Each structure stands twice: as structure tokens, then as C-alpha cells.
Amino acid sequence: MAVGTNGTNGPNGGSLPKGTPLTEPSPVAETDPAVYGEYEAKWGKAAFPATEDEWIARAKEVADILATDAVQRDLENKSPRAEIALLKHSQLLRVLGPTKYGGGGQPWNVAYKLIREVAKTDGSIGMLLGYHLLWSTSANVVGTPEQADRTHKLIIENNWFVGGAVNPRDQDQVITQDGDHIVFNGFKHFNTGGVVSDLTVLEGVLEGTEDHIFAIVETKQPGIQFLHNWNNVGLRLTESGSVRVINVRVPWTDALGWSATDKKPFDEILKIPFARLLLPTIQLVFSNFYLGIALGALSAGSAYTRTSTRAWPYTGGDTKSAATDEFYILERYGNFHAHLAAVTALADASGLAVASVYSNYSENRSELTWRGRGELAEKVAAVKVVATDEALQVTAGIFEVTGAKATSSKVGLDRFWRDVRTHTLHDPVAYKNRELGRWQLLDEIPEPTWYT
């Protein structure tokens, strides 16, 4: 598979859409991949995970490693070059890839559990893993079988990490034609993981049409310029800042789902419900790292309560000797546990539903109906609603059962809430509730959008 490169004399002469910010990026500090060098050797000698349990065990290993300095890394806010190296060493990036190229060959329901495990101790790295798994398999959904095969071979054999510059809220990138190539130009306020990626997914609209094109390009090229301006409340290590795309040239053969001969989309690929599976797939990615972050907060809060929280002495005659005997603390932890257990069960059921759709229709894409796609979207939407609600409830409420000293920055419990609060604003959950309401009352499947 060829990858797009920058052309200095593209059809737009290097110009950018009106209003594109032109500020220069500031220097960026990165974590050092050498800190995880021992795991490259360790996992390189270990047996490649073969079962669901083995993959989950590997993800737990990664989470435990990240947990040792998660609070400090969050405070330092460095570009996660080392953490991506750790994901590569662990083989988690390959979990969905075909076995013939060295992938794990696992279904999506397993991948969702790995995202959740990693997010328990580091929400940023759990999010990056989830986005990579979506983008690295996007050709399965919107590409031809030949394009999907080439993409898998490229990504899996090189063990590459994939980022994406596909923020729908911004103006679409403009795509122009130049012989056997298409050329991308544009700006995105948000991308995810691009700074530390090997490949980047670009998406735009072909000039003079309303047709969208996805393509996967090499990240390290002059035409992809990251502004290194991600400094938000939470998910501080996701490198979700702005990116400029200037005259990035891509062979027509790499325009996913398009004919390089006719320069037209394959209607049997891009105009059917199967081609709209990327959105429910990634929406469940979101829910699983929300859930993982909430479970991590519950675990960290429990450990703090057991070791550091003091019983309240002014109880009017019901004083306890230990915080773990306090009725209200036990009640809150029990309630958190029950609700997260319910969300976990719902997320697992929806993960199986996503995996089933891919298993049943990947070889016969045209057989998936709009109704079938809509029903899957509503299963995923239900998870998104309750995962958002419970993750916010738990990550904020954990301070009620840990106490005032637990708000110290060195404890780091605040990072769980900050991470969930940041990404749950990605698309308003109120619209998911409305969507589910129309499903419940009117039996209406949702209109496929960039967020549904």
C-alpha cells in the first residue's frame, strides 16, 4: 500500500481554507521510549496471546505498568511517545488484525475489553488504543477487500500506530484531483494521537461534489503539521490538538472505497448500511474507556479509603473506629459497584452485538439492512447514555467517600473525573437520550450521522 506524501506544487499551491489558524507550534516534550525497553524483550520472548483471557491478561499487565507513575505522567503532560512504544511492545495494537500478517484475529468484543482494562489506570492511553483499533480497521468498513488487505499488511507487519484527523465539527478538508492522485488541504482543531502516530487517517470532500473520501497516509511528512496545542482539563496524554494538512498527495488507489480507474465511489461499498458501521463501532469505544476510567476511580478510591480515610468523629453516638465501617461510606461504595457492574454487563452485551454484525456481514456487506444497522446503533447508544451518567457520578462522587485530603494533586484521584468530563463533551449525550426516546416511542431507527 502506498502512503500519501506532501507535494510542494499541488493544485491549490499550498493555500489553506479561509480562517485557518497560522500560529506556529511550540516545542513539545516527549516521554522516552527507553523507559519501557525491558518489555520489548520480555513480550518479544513471550507467547503471542491466543485467547480472550490471554489478551485481557496482557492488557492488565500494561495497565499495571502504567499505574506506577500515572499521576506523575498526567501532571507532566508530555507527548506519550513512550506509552505508544509500550502498546507496541505488548502487541495490543495488533489484536484485531488478521493472523496471516501477525495479528491477533480477535473480534471487537475482545478489543473493547482491552480498551477498558488499559483505561482503568490511564484513560489517555486507553483512549489512544481505542482510536487506533477503529482507524486501523476502517478499511474493513469503507474500503475494498483489496484495500483492506493491503492496509492490514502494512499496519500489522510494521506494528504501526494509527491516528486520525477526522473531526466532523470542523470544515471538511478539501480534496482536489491531480492525475492519478488526490490532494488533501485543510485544518482540524482536533485530531487524536497524530503526533505520536506512524499513519494518519484523513477525510475530506472531493471538490465540486458532496462525496467524502477516507485515506490513510504517512504521518511524518511536511504536509502534516501538528500545532502541539492540546492542554485541556483531562485526557492530557492523547495529543488531541490541532493539525494543518497542506498538499498531502494520495494515490487514487488508496482512496478507500473508490475506483482508481473511474475516479468514482463504489456504490456497492459506500452507499450501503455496512459502510456506516464506523460510528456505532467507535461510540462503543468511547463507552468502554469511560467505563474503564470509572472502574479505575472506584479501585483507586477504595484503596485510599482502606488506608487513609479517617472515620468521622462527630456522629451523635454512632462513631466508628474505621472509615470502612462507616454506613454512608459502605452504602456509597456498594451503590457505585452495583451501577458499574450493570454498565459493564450492558457494554459486554453490546460488544458481542458489534462483533456479531461484523462476523455475519463482512463477507456479504449488502445483506445488512438499514434496520439492522439502526438496531445496533441503539444498543450502542444505550451504553453511551448509562456509561456517561455513571462515569461522571462515580468519578466525582469518589471524593465523598475518600475525604478532603484525597483532593491532593499527589493522590491524583481528580484525573479520573477530568478525563471523563473532557471526552463526554465530545457529542452531547442529550441527543442520544432523544434518539433512544424516538426509538422507544416511535420505533424509529436513527439517521446515520457522524455521531450516530
UniProtKB/TrEMBL annotation:
Alphabetical list of InterPro entries matching this protein: Acyl-CoA_DH_C, Acyl-CoA_Oxase/DH_mid-dom_sf, AcylCo_DH-like_C, AcylCoA_DH/ox_N_sf, AcylCoA_DH/oxidase_NM_dom_sf
GO molecular function: 3-methylbutanoyl-CoA dehydrogenase activity; flavin adenine dinucleotide binding
Domain of life of the organism encoding this protein: Eukaryota
Acyl-CoA dehydrogenase C-terminal domain ranges (all copies): 284-426
Coiled coil feature spans: none
UniProt GO BP: L-leucine catabolic process
Keywords: Flavoprotein, Oxidoreductase
Stretches the record annotates as Disordered: 1-31
Organism: Aulographum hederae CBS 113979
UniProt name for this protein: Acyl-CoA dehydrogenase NM domain-like protein
